[in-house]
Amino acid sequence: MPERYDSIIIGAGAGGLSMASILSLAGRGKILLVDKAPRPGGALGGFTTNGIAFDAGFHFTGALNDGGLFDRLLRLCGVRDRITPKFLDPDRANIFHFENSSATIEFPYGLKRLQSSLKSQFPGESNAVERYFEDISRVIEATPALNLATAHLPPKPLKEENITLKTYLNGLTDNRLLRETLSALIMCHGSAPSEISMADNARLCFGFYESVATLQGGGEALVNAFLAELAERGVEIACGEELVEIGTVSERKAERFVLKSGRELETDELIFTLSPTTVASILPKQHFPPAFFHRIESFEPTPGFFTVFATLPEDVDPMDADSITSIYPVDDIDALSLPGWKGPGALAIIHSESTGGKTVVTAFEPLYWDVVESWANSTRLNRPQEYLEWKKSKTEEILRRIISQFPAYSGKLEWETSCSPLTYRDYLYHDQGAAYGIKHKIGQMNLVGQARLRNIFFAGQSAILPGVLGTMTASLLIARIILGNAEFANLIAQHSR
Ligand SMILES: Cc1cc2nc3c(=O)[nH]c(=O)nc-3n(C[C@H](O)[C@H](O)[C@H](O)COP(=O)(O)OP(=O)(O)OC[C@H]3O[C@@H](n4cnc5c(N)ncnc54)[C@H](O)[C@@H]3O)c2cc1C
């Protein structure tokens, strides 16, 4: 006899952990969270090298201010009081260096502070700045999912869904540097300004306009917070496991799910939080039309990152440690974000505290899969010499760029390790090492919500919006579909403040 669960969730990253949390809150008594990796967390978790803990994916977030969406979502999940945010410098949380035009732009948070800072850095552009933030606010207000009190309501139609960020900004101002500044946060979602709608970019960025924070203990602290909460609620977690078969379909409902270990399961709802390509490889082909799979094939993964992890000894004072420093070699973020860019890419540098007094310096350069594709058949313990040499020289190039930005680190910065899209593919199981799942292109129909087989649902970072906040928002909205509007509204009313 198959083992029975109320809910089964495939993937225990930010999407799966938050989904399990919301469904357990809604009274699902028997929940199983399945993950292929040896430990839950996915891109939210960390790793340890030379005794130093590093964040694998997630480094910082928006909207963790009191009453912000992330703050409220974490409270709903019961984990907010288990983590400690570290807010970055409100006056210069982000610093953008445009090398071509030798311009440095400080990008604060707090809507009023941000607007007045931009107005003073771009004299003569006050109207454009005001209009931009009015339009952003209108998109956010028309997106009920971004507010727990209204998350049960359908979204309102918006003209900003049908215009790309690039076209919108071209119509907003002739000031190129302001346009690039307002595009700069696309590093946090991976779709180029000419690909993403103004509306989705607004939804992805508004949290960073409110506040920017890292977490004490990194993403791993949030993973541990979820694990502690889910353990108290009796959620079972099976790591090193995979769903390998969906069988016995009756009345558009799958009645049998088989795991790699041979365990047979049945459930009222199975929620995938994996990449669409992985989901497509598991779904029973005969129960979906070919067009469904063609749609999935047409999705394009976001770039991954080439990441260099380094440390500074205790006696070296970190520079701009409460800011994220991003360097753009040309004033053309669209060109830098599309496939085919040759030369050094954009680079984001983040400082964080490590145990033992050292400062961790992490530098991320977006990188598409095609750069590493010729080594795709290698495994993590068996990379060819050519790849290792390329990785070494890429690492040296990025270390040089860090030193050129922070000359005081010369001779002090110690390289610890580097990751390429191949590394992310092999450790996080992300298709093509993509950092944020699939691109969210204008007009695209994502793999989201309820499948043709009624007890199968799609969530995770590729469903609605990426980033940890976007991923958890998807969990909230898919939970709404699973529970139905009335039960969902009741749940939110009972458990959110
Ligand atoms: C380098 C990097 C930096 C990032 N920086 C930030 C940041 O600073 N801020 C931010 O908000 N976001 C950041 N992100 C993005 C953010 O981490 C993700 O959007 C989010 O964590 C995705 O959550 P998820 O649950 O959808 O996917 P994942 O975290 O990938 O979780 C999916 C889980 O499914 C498991 N899995 C995969 N295949 C299978 C299978 N066949 N069967 C069972 N389990 C499987 C995986 O092991 C994994 O645990 C970053 C991502 C990367 C890679």
What does this molecule look like?
By secondary structure, this protein is α+β, with helices and mostly antiparallel strands. The chain is built from 15 helices and 20 strands. Strand 7 (94-98) and strand 8 (103-107) form a beta hairpin. The two termini are 43 Å apart. The model has no long low-confidence stretch (mean pLDDT 96). Flavin-adenine dinucleotide (FAD) is lined by residues 10-16, 34-37, 42-44, 57-61, 242, 273-274, 278, 305, 307, 424, 428-430, 435-436, 460-461, 466-469, 471.
Distance between the termini: 43 Å
Q: If you average the pLDDT, what whole number results?
A: 96
Helix/strand-derived category reads alpha+beta
The CATH architecture assignment of the largest domain turns out to be 3-Layer(bba) Sandwich
Low-confidence regions: none
Set down the secondary structure blueprint.
Elements lengths: L2 E8 L3 H12 L5 E5 L10 E4 L2 E4 L5 E2 L6 H8 L8 E3 L6 E5 L4 E5 L3 H11 L4 H16 L23 H8 L3 H8 L14 H13 L1 E4 L2 H15 L3 E4 L3 E8 L2 E7 L4 E9 L3 H7 L7 H9 L5 E9 L11 E5 L4 H5 L9 E7 L5 E9 L17 H21 L8 E6 L1 H8 L20 E2 L5 E3 L8 H17 L1 H11 L2
Parallel strand pairs: 1-2, 1-13, 2-10, 7-15, 13-20
Antiparallel strand pairs: 3-4, 5-9, 6-9, 7-8, 11-12, 12-13, 14-17, 14-18, 15-16, 16-17, 19-20
Helix pairs in contact: 1-8, 1-14, 3-4, 4-7, 14-15
The structure holds flavin-adenine dinucleotide.
Flavin-adenine dinucleotide binds next to helix 1, strand 2, strand 14, helix 13 and helix 14.
